[in-house]
Structures are given as structure tokens and as C-alpha cells.
Here is the input.
Amino acid sequence: MWSIVDDSPIALPSGLEVGMPALLAAVEAVNLSLSRVARNTSQMAINLFEVLDFRVLSGLVGEFLVAELASLEQSLLKNPNIDGYPDLLDVSRPIYLEDVAAWIDHDRAQFIAYRHGGIEVKNTFGVKRPGEDLLQGERRIGQILDALDWKAHHTETNFLLATFSDFVDGAPQIVAAMYSDSLSETDWRAKSNPSPGSTMTSFSVIAASGRNKLMAGLRICADDPIYKAFFGIGQ
Amino acid sequence: MSLDVAMSFNACGPIQYSSRVTSESRAIEPSAVIRAIERTNDYLVALPDYLADADMDLFGAMGQRNISGFIGEVFARAFAAAVPGYVVNPHGDGRPDLLDVVSTTSRDYLHQECSHQVRNRSIPAKEKLAPFKYGGIEIKTTVGTPSRTYDREALKSQSGVTEFDVGIPRIDYLSSLKYWGHHKDCESLLGLYYDYLPARRYLPQVVLAMYAEIDPSSDWADVSTGRPGSKKTSNTSLKSSGTQKLYSNPIAVINDAQYLAGLKKIGVNV
Here is the structure.
């Protein structure tokens, strides 16, 4: 099912570690959930994934993974502020928990940039190669650019669990996950600010240097030759 | 999934237009449109339960503008499932949204001429589907525009907020139904209006469908294309003349006194 490329844990400065068993369990649970959504909504005649745009879809994959990791790992808490950073709060020390308890009712702005850190989660489906015809819900590998394109709201984004997803049997599935705790501002390109009135928020795209760091932090990849070839595994 | 309160709809009148192939008149009964609305609404109510594992506010994440487009996509599929002779335009940028394949001529044209074979895959041909020469029905969706001078204090006491965020019902503050598009090539227009219904967990629900034959040359505002090099997509909006055509021809409307009163107030003929 999975090729374990690097079984070192996702490690945070506090000493909190999320090991490979938890990461694998979370990713597998997310993939099951996504398949179930595709099946259930198809039974209502409209596969949700045929009508959602990629921005929302990538957000959805990320939210599923955040929820799974928070339920598997007691020292991680989903950020209660929808605009907060990071997505998963490190609550591995009693003092962190005390702060969270104090802020959650009275000072939610503290979660915009949670001072005790944690893990940010981002997903991408990759960028279609120019000239390729890709149908919504169709497998994308082989028709996307080699450079994956994670986006973040700000260039301070670090401690990033980055996933790559593809469509398998009409459902999005996480097919690879990587982690970097050494991203810096220069690893993100300058912010792109949408035109006034647009509902899109500003975002930065990973730069080549950041992508290289994430690729070097590849933890798991679907045990399928086409994905392994994409990531240069076993070559 | 539980549907908290059953919704019922009043049938107003049929969708009527002339086929571009045979010039025969088409009439789609309001009961079929109501079936499509109900299927759409049930789907929108079921989604949060399906996504419960993600603990995600799907509609909040989409944002208001994307919700309108999303509901249009869902409705198009529901309509195609409910009404024989109509299929969803297979090209993402195709127009109209629903293709009229009632006649053998248009059906054969769609199946034989409107796709390319690429590596054993059938890829929709944009040049044949944007536009589709045998026409069909364009779907536009709006949540409605609140009055510019709406009573913010009343909204705050009612909903706890002063702005119309996702999930805040608008019917009591409605001033008009504004429809937006990327192009003026839109003649057979099915205009939907949705709101966030308290009885349906404040989820978006279609409550009105209207239909009009629109004159592309006079009923749409000039298309704004943005500055050269800008990534902004082109956009236009239905002028008052087009909106009035829709208002005067409702197809189906929710059977609810509050909504009937609010829609009458802005001039919809319900």
C-alpha cells in the first residue's frame, strides 16, 4: 500500500513527535473518508468531487487530515480560529494547554499566530501541464508539472506537513506526504494579492528551494510505480 | 441525515422556449423544476453530514461567490436527472449549462461531433460546446442583494452579526436579485434564488426559480474585461430589463409566507 521513504517522526521544537504509525493511520483514514464522500454523494447522483474547485478541494483534504491527526495525537489540537496558524496546535506541555484554555474563550486572536507552534498542513493536486486535457475527477499523475505548488497565506509558514493528492476512482486520495521544519521566508515566493472584490485571500507559493526541502522530507508515497517514479523512489 | 422541516413549492408556470433545431415549442412543467430544486436542496443539506469527519465548514470555506456557482453546478446535474432531453454541458467552460438534446439531430451532434479522442479518452471539444449550436438553458444563481440601507441593529438582534456572511438569511433585507455572468451569450435563462434557511440548519437552499428569454444585445450590461494583462475574468450583469423579465415569470417558489412576501416586495410575480 505504502512505500515508507523515511520513517523519522515529524518533530517539533517542544520535543513533540508524531511517529510514522500515526501519520500512516491518519492518511489512510482520510483516504477512506474521501472515498466514502465520493460514494455517498454519487448515490445522490452528484459526486461532490466533480463539482468542487481545486482550491476548496485541497482545503477539504487538509481539513480531513488535520481532524484525523488531532484525534490520533492527544498533544495536537485543531486550531480553533479558522484563520489561525498553524493548523494543529502543539499542546504537549501543561503551560501550552493553560494558555489555550485561557485564550479560547476570551482572546481567539492569539490563535492567528499561536506562539507555541505546531504543524501546518497543506495539500496540492499539482499543476496541469500546459496543453493537457484533464477531466474533472481524472487521474492527474503523468499530466501535471514536476514542480508541486503548495500555497500558504504567509511566507512565515514552516513545520509544514505537505501532501500531494490525486484522483483514484473518482475520489481524491493522498498519495504522498512530506515534512519540513526548515522552511524560511525565502522558501516562499512573494505574496500574490488578488484583485479588489475577489473572494480569494492573498497567498504565497512555495519556491524551488522550499520544494526541495519538502521533497527531501518525503515520508510516504503510495506503493504504485507511477507515483514512485514521480518522486524518484527506487531509481 | 435528517431534513428538519419539509419544504413545499408552489408551481407557477412552465419554462417555454422554441427549439433551435425544429422551432418546436418546448415546455418544461414546473413539477419537473421542483423535482430538480428538491434534489438540489436535499443534497445541500446532506453534505455537512458527509463531511462531518473533516469538521469543516464547507460553505464557509467556499465563500459567498463560490457557493452561488456551486449551487448552479449541483442544480444543473439535478435538472438533467429530473428532466429527459437535457444534459449537463460536458465542457467546464461550455455554454449553455444545460444542452437541449431533445431532438435526434442535437443528440447525435453532441455524441458524434462534440468530443476529441485523446489517448483513448473522450475529451469535450470546447469549440463545439462553447457555445453548443442547438442551445439549451443557462443557469444563474444568486443569494440576492440586501438593501444598502438595511437595518444593521435589526440584523444584529436577529443574527448576532451586522454583515451578511455565509449562513445569514437575507430575505427580510432583500432589495433585488442580481445575476452575474462572464459573457452576454445567454438567451434562455433560468434564474435561481437561494437563501440560508433557519429551518434547514441555515444551509443554502434554492427557494425560487424564474425563467426568461433574454436579449443578449440589450439585457446584459457591457462586458468588463479588466486591464490588459490582468488575471481578472470578464464579467457582466443582467440589466434591469432582463431582471424584470425573470421577475415576471416565476416557475416555482417556496410555499412560505415570509419568502412570498419578501419576493413580492421586490417585484417578483409570485
Summary: Chain A has a mean pLDDT of 92.
